[in-house]
Amino acid sequence: MGIFHCPFGCPHFEAEGCIECGLCLATTNEEMVEASKNVRAYLKAHAMEGGPVRKIAICGKGGVGKSTTTTLMARVLKDQGYTPLVVDTDESNPGLYRALGLPNTPKPLFNLMSRFSYSETPEPGTEWIMLPEINLEDIPREYMVSDQGMNFVMVGKIENPFQGCACSMADVTRSLVARLKLKDKEILLIDTEAGLESFGRGVERSVDLILAVVEPSFESMALAERIVYMAEGMGVDRVGALLNKVSSKAMEEKMILELKKRKVETLGTIYFDADVLEAGFEGNPPGNTRAQAEMEPIAKLLLNVIQQSRV
After folding, report:
1. Domain count of the fold of the chain
2. Are 151 and 102 in contact (CB under 8 A)?
3. Strand 186-191 relative to strand 239-246: parallel, antiparallel, unpaired?
């Protein structure tokens, strides 16, 4: 079944934390499906209920506007007195730091992988990533750019031919998200890679809420349905859609109705904004646009979610 990534981070069958789902032992597609059902059932049964939203994963099809959504939400949160930590897990898109108004990128977390992944004794300077709980102040300044209340961490980018796949980058992301201990007013926003790859690697397992960004297209709405399925199978039952690049009220109503048929709840709408498009073309922050104003009630809604029921 190719390279295996245990959803619980276990190095082998029956290691500490193993639930004996059989996923690592599966040799046929049928065995893998049955093992995946065991994992899904376990995670749903042991899902964390209620509690404030502190960790948000922003997902969706390529090109729907995940990075723009992340940027707008981070800016709104900062304006409302929160301390956002944006984690860029997309191994392709290079410009998120510019959209956030930051002067440069930090050292990628991927640089740590070759040193600590298979070593029982981490090298000096890498111990922090192995802490049972990681606070914002534990992250070395070289790995996090901070400017006027905005914090940015970058997992890494594929920059050269034959560099390898992004699986190791996902390992770093999953470890960081699971161990990150956020204080009051600190919010984690994860700008994920396109599609469902991150779910297959278990990146979203430790988040409080998953936001599926949906544009007016059949493929985008179909993927949102799959995101809900994947999220619930991970034990994350707070998941909804943010409609983006919507052209009209009539289109918004059509999308809401179609997503409802797919059992995907809509949390808010961002209409097409030419100013945001122009800012993205120039590699600049979006500024005080209509889209940012439309993001304010959506961000407030997410921050107020502390009930056990789904949003």
Report:
1. 2
2. no
3. unpaired
Residue in the block written with tokens 């502190």: 54
C-beta of residue 158 within 8 angstroms of C-beta of residue 150: no
Maximal C-alpha separation, the chain: 59
> Smallest Cα–Cα separation from 55: which of 230, 241, 239?
239
Residue range 147-178, pLDDT digits in tens: 888 999 988 655 544 444 555 666 778 888 88
Same-domain pairing of 98 and 37: no
pTM: 0.79
What distance in Å separates the CA atoms of residue 95 and residue 100, rounded to the nearest whole number?
Answer: 9
Q: Which residue has the tokens 């390279």?
A: 3
In DSSP terms, 241 is beta-bridged to: 212, 266
- In sequence order, what are the beta bridge partners of 151? 85, 146
Average predicted confidence (pLDDT) for the chain: 81
Contact assessment for residue 213 and residue 59, using Cβ atoms and an 8 Å cutoff? yes
| Cβ within 8 Å of residue 137, ≥6 positions away | none
Residue type, 173: T
- Whether 74 and 142 map to the same domain: the answer is yes
Query: What domain range is 27 assigned to?
Result: 1-46
Query: 147 has which bridge partners?
Result: 150
| Cβ-proximal residues to 13 (8 Å cutoff; 6+ apart), any chain | 20, 24, 25
Q: How far apart are CA 182 and CA 289, in angstroms?
A: 29
Sheet with 266-271: list strands edge to edge.
Answer: 145-147, 150-154, 83-88, 186-191, 55-59, 209-214, 239-246, 266-271
